[in-house]
Amino acid sequence: MLKNIDPALNADVLHALRSMGHGDTLVVSDTNFPSDAIARQTRLGKLLRIDNVPAARAIRAILSVMPLDTPLQPSAGRMEIMGAPGEIPPVQREVQVEIDAAEGKSAPMYGIERFAFYEEAKNAYCVITTGETRFYGCFLFTKGVIPPDSI
């Protein structure tokens, strides 16, 4: 155990989050996503896991250490429901609450069509699969920066 580090974050996940640079993207997926196949095509090239927790809990842990990109560009995306792209299912509403809490303000997610999401995921730095069993629990995050204490 480490102080002030969410216990959901294992060593492999922490290493990946720390290794990512500004503008790198991260996929957080549900259990139905083709995580291993997609992860093999990412920069990291292997699947990471935060097992036994739902997506919102895993994302809370991730956002406790990873800054999102600036509001100048969308930094949090969600997989759209096929045939109902504007519909926001409960899993996505729960994740939105975690994003807003981490950012300290409203930071709405943008929608990504399902098959476009798969393609964008292949270009991500890595994929972290969670224990989320509900459909459409798949998200894409862009890493931001932490500014210096003084300029």
From TrEMBL:
The keyword Isomerase applies. It catalyses: beta-D-ribopyranose = beta-D-ribofuranose; alpha-L-fucose = beta-L-fucose. It comes from Phyllobacterium sophorae. Keywords: Isomerase. One of its GO terms (molecular function) is fucose binding. One of its GO terms (biological process) is fucose metabolic process. It comes from the Bacteria. This is Fucose-binding protein. The keyword RNA-binding does not apply.
